[in-house]
Amino acid sequence: MLQPIRTYFFEREKKKRLSESGKRSPQFKKDRKNHFGILVDAGIPGDRNEVIAFAEKLRKDGNQVKILGFLEGKAEGVAMPFDLFTTADLAKVSKIPRGPVVDEFIEQPFDVLINMSIHHNHKSLDFISSLSKATFRIGPWYQHVNNNPYDLCLDTGSSATLKEWIHELMHTLQKIY
């Protein structure tokens, strides 16, 4: 019974903030250095390592990369080489992500924002993707999601690993650009 109320307040806040934000035009170019924002489910150790390796590859190519991870539960005693927010940073009723780390990430003018949470659709990561100042948004495709915030959705199947998804993403971007 509480879930429909949370969904109502979540969607209401998202629509309000989206109506306040301005228009965006894609700035991503394959032949130049870009500013990447990456969202990740930090609760999966293998995915964390893949994202860190992918970010390092992008940095070696001269791109800027900022990573924000979401961790269900508490982050006590967890050291990550990127910023984190947890379920403690979600609003009580609406479950909207809050805090300086989240606000700073949303305000970053990324050329490309990639949500790499391919195994679980975290509404908080979709919320950040929706409100981000990024000009090009990429994320996983979930069949049950009606309104996704992405300009490009990739579905590599339910059994795909993050490494395979990243490979498919880079292959697709090479075809587009």
Structural class: alpha/beta
Question: Shape from CA axes?
Answer: globular
- The CATH topology: Rossmann fold
Q: Count the beta strands.
A: 6
Taken together, the total number of domains comes to: 1
Give the % helix.
25-40%
Strand order of the largest sheet: 3-2-1-4-5-6
> pLDDT average, as an integer?
83
Per CATH, the class reads Alpha Beta
Low-confidence stretches: none
Distance between the termini: 46 Å
β-strand percent reads 15-25%
- Radius of gyration (CA) equals 16 Å
Element order, helices and strands?
HEHEEHEHEEH
Would you mind describing this structure in some detail?
- This protein has a six-stranded parallel beta sheet, sandwiched between helices.
- The protein has a single domain, classed as Rossmann fold (3-Layer(aba) Sandwich), CATH 3.40.50.
- Helix content is 38%, strand content 17%.
- By secondary structure, the protein is of the alpha/beta class.
- The protein has helices at residues 2-20, 45-60, 100-107, 123-131, 162-176; strands spanning 35-41, 64-71, 83-86, 112-115, 137-140, 152-154.
- The mean pLDDT is 83.
- The protein contains five helices and six strands.
- α2 (45-60) links the parallel β1 and β2 (64-71).
Topology at a glance:
Blueprint: H1 2-20, E1 35-41, H2 45-60, E2 64-71, E3 83-86, H3 100-107, E4 112-115, H4 123-131, E5 137-140, E6 152-154, H5 162-176
Parallel strand pairs: 1-2, 1-4, 2-3, 4-5, 5-6
